[in-house]
Structures are given as structure tokens and as C-alpha cells.
Amino acid sequence: xxxxxxxxxxxxxxxxxxxxxxxxxxxxxxxxxxxxxxxxxxxxxxxxxxxxxxxxxxxxxxxxxxxxxxxxxxxxxxxxxxxxxxxxxxxxxxxxxxxxxxxxxxxxxxxxxxxxxxxxxxxxxxxxxxxxxxxxxxxxxxxxxxxxxxxxxxxxxxxxxxxxxxxxxxxxxxxxxxxxxxxxxxxxxxxxxxxxxxxxxxxxxxxxxxxxxxxxxxxxxxxxxxxxxxxxxxxxxxxxxxxxxxxxxxxxxxxxxxxxxxxxxxxxxxxxxxxxxxxxxxxxxxxxxxxxxxxxxxxxxxxxxxxxxxxxxxxxxxxxxxxxxxxxxxxxxxxxxxxxxxxxxxxxxxxxxxxxxxxxxxxxxxxxxxxxxxxxxxxxxxxxxxxxxxxxxxxxxxxxxxxxxxxxxxxxxxxxxxxxxxxxxxxxxxxxxxxxxxxxxxxxxxxxxxxxxxxxxxxxxxxxxxxxxxxxxxxxxxxxxxxxxxxxxxxxxxxxxxxxxxxxxxxxxxxxxxxxxxxxxxxxxxxxxxxxxxxxxxxxxxxxxxxxxxxxxxxxxxxxxxxxxxxxxxxxxxxxxxxxxxxxxxxxxxxxxxxxxxxxxxxxxxxxxxxxxxxxxxxxxxxxxxxx
Length: 628
Prior knowledge:
mainly alpha, 29 helices, disordered N terminus, 2% strand, two-stranded antiparallel sheet
């Protein structure tokens, strides 16, 4: 930190807290006042000492996204093989690991081997196990997926178990990596953790989903088993490299930069003591007069930032005291496994938590059919994996850009306004998507869908993803605002878990209901009535149907189970859908979504306007400890 416009680091805990307040607010105020922002540290100067760490985090989050992308491939392959919606619902339970990671997160956060490091004790074993699981899966995947022309050979149950193990390991890796990111980065750069998580994990998904599909379509010999083997070996090698070449060092254990003078820190502490008695301008003059000339402008800028922060907090109705700006960063408490579970229980017992739980568990009720079926219905209409991959590409930059573009609204006191604004627009988009899929068959020219179908579908999917990202961004910002800072990690994990369970549970339910609400009929082809009976047709089958070999036999066959489907095929017929459960669910979800929004609108406003003290559990914990 040798340049004149670089902020001076602090050497004790109290000064470090002041540093955090100034730096964090500096980033916020840069957006509000660009002229003032030119006087402050630039983004790259703030990365001083953390560039390698950010690069490492980015790479590890890419690694973490690879298994997630692979898992997204499997439902498409299952749909291509004609697997039923009920079997797809069973497979969806394999992806629940990320939604349920709060159950074992306290164990990951509380148990480690000191010689290896708190986070590396979990990261390295998880990466080795993820790599090993993908290598084993590469040898089994062809047998599990079965014959492309025989759906009975697909082993969905075994496939679900292996995927659940893979997602469980990936979720455990995510818990440890999130914790390491917070302790690895300097305080002023902790906000980059979410950026590395979002961009890196999405990059891993693109690498293992989109890129693989493109290579499979363009290069002969590239298959899923080969990709799984390559990814597994690569992840295992990265784990070995991490264990050998990266030492786990937290920011608090780093030495102060060589160019920082002890006298600077002492003067800063002195300035804080005399602030209230002499005023901010006097503080600036005293400190500036005793600092080297190349650091006087820095102190002036920091004092101006502190003044702006006071004005900002005064504007939002917060307390106007210097101590608040300097000491408002409460550190998260280190808790054991049992204590963490007790905190979770106290969070659940908060008065407003049941209301929040009801909103979070049901917020996707209007979107469940679309989220569960759209990709599957595209596959049924002959859309290839490569075409699905290309349609997904425009959504990637949208998902990356939206959180940045909405940053000024997520820092306000009412971030759920973003959700209330965007949600009503998603519902008609899902309706239009279902309508487009409904007419897909009639749009086909020579058995292929036209270009304008893909353009329209891509547009609808991108808009839906953008609106969904706006909703999610507002909800995550609200989670951050209400989380008790003393138990922030546990608190945030509990809220995120609620959101994820709401998404996954309703999608799984929609898939389970898909087959029940879908009605089929065995239809004869022109040649079937004149053809000979298949040798598989026995006299028992004919007697059980109470009909001779004629159109009545087809009429009585509703293709409800594998026996009826097989009978229809043996009669040279086919099972046609008379009522598609997807469209029934789409209409029902649209109606339920509208009703949900009307009912929950006031509840969401109630949650947003509630006092922050209503969400605190740390005071109750401290009171209990004092009594004990």
C-alpha cells in the first residue's frame, strides 16, 4: 500500500471495524457520487493482497459447478428415453442435497483437523470423493441409462442414489468453501465471495452442461461416460494440488503490510477518542498534521466518507452517533454443533418466522409446472440437447448482470419490492410458454420445428429467467437484512434452505402429478387392424380385455401401466395423449399463483416493514447465558 490514495490498514480490532465501515460504504457511495468515487480506492487497488485468493475461489466454485451441470443433463436423457413423469419425480429427489444442507452444515462448520486447516479439512476430502464418484459413475452410466429403445432397462432408483451422493458431497464442499471465502479475503473484499460463487458456479455448469453438449454434437466419440471420467480425474488432481500448494491462512492471521507505520494506527485510535469532543473537522486536522504527506489526503477522504455515512444513516432513520458507525459490525459467534442446532430452534420459534416460512415454501406454486416440465416437453417435441443448450445461453449473462444492476435497490430498506414488482410478470410468461409448446406440433414443417419457434421460446425462457433472478435477488437481500449478525451464517442458511425447499418440493410434486393428470388412449394404426396378432398376445390377455381383436380392444386400453402399454405395442398400436397433465397443471398453477400473490401481498409487506429486533436471537442467547 505505497500509493498516496490507498487506504491505511489497521492493526487492532477496533480500528479494523472502522476500516470496514468506511470501505464498505465507499463502494456504496461510489454509485451515488462518481466525483467523490474518483478520490477513493479503485476496485483493483482494493484487491491488493487478494488477487490470488479471488482467482482461487473463482476456480474452486467452477469446480463445484461441474457436478451440478452433469446432473442437469440426466433428466434430458431420461426424457429422450421415454421415462415417465413419476420416474422423473423420483430422480428429482437426488438433487435435494443442496436444499437440505442446513441439516449437516453445523457439523462441517464445527469439526476439523487443526493441522490441515478448518476449511481444507473438508474441501480436500470432498473434492477427492466427488472426483471418485464421477469416475465410478463414468463406468456405470451406460448400464444405468439402459437401452435407448427400451425404457424398462433404465435404472432410475440406482441413478437417483448415486446422484444424491454426488450432490451431498458437492453441498458439503459448498458449506466449507463459503466459510473459507469469508475468512480468506480481507474484510473490504468479503463481498466478492458472492460474485465468485455466482459467476464461478454458473461457469462450471456451462462447462459441464453447455460445452459438453456442443462437443458431443460436433465431435464423434465424445460421450457422457468419457466426460464424467475426464471431470472426475481433473477434480481429484485439483484436490491434490490444493493440499500441496495452498496453505489455509485467514485474513486475521496475516501480517500487516510493511509500509504501514505503527504510529499511523496509534494516531487513528487517538483521533477516535477525541472525535466526539472536538468534532470531525478537528479530528481531520489533528490526524492530517501528524501523518506523512502522501497519506494526508487519504485521511481526509476517509473522514468525508464517515460524514456521508452519518448523513445516509440519519436519512434512513438510524441512530446518529459516532460509536454506531465504528462499532456496528458484530462478529459472528463461534458455536459448537449442539449450540448451532439450538440457535436454529430459536430462529424457528421467532414470532414472524412461521409467516416467512409459509411465504418461502409456497412462492413458486404458480411456477411449479413450468419449472418441472418445460425442458421435458421440448424433448418430447423433438428438440435436441444441443438446441436446448443454445436456447439457454442468453439467460447466462442475464443471471450475472441482474444482481449488479439491482444493487442500489437491494441496499434499501425494502428489497422485497423487487419481488412484488417482478412476480406478477412471471405468471403470464409461464402461460405463454405453455401455449407455445401446445401449438408446437402444428408448427412443424416436414417433422421439424421452425426457426421462429426457437426464437420465441428462447425469448420467453430468457425473460422468465431474468424475472426469476429479480425475485431471488430481492429475497436474498431481505434475508441478509433480517439475519442476526451474531449468528449470520446459520441464519442465512436457514432462510436459503426454506427458499430451496419451496422450489424443489413443488417441482417434485408437479412431476408426480403429471402422470396422474395425463390421460392416454391406445390408438390403432391403419395397418394394425389387418395385421396378425403379435406372438406376445396370449389368450389370457384377450380374455382379460373382454373383447375380440378389434377397435374395442384399443378403446379399452388406456395405457395406464406397463402391461397395457406393452399390449398396445404388441397390437401394433400406439399410446396417444388425450389429456396432457402439463397443460392442466399450467392452468391450475396460473390460477393458484394469482391467488397466492393476492393473499400474500400484505403478508410480504408486513415482513418487510417489521422491526429488525423482531428477527434477533443473539440477545436471547446472551440473556440465557447470563442466567446460567
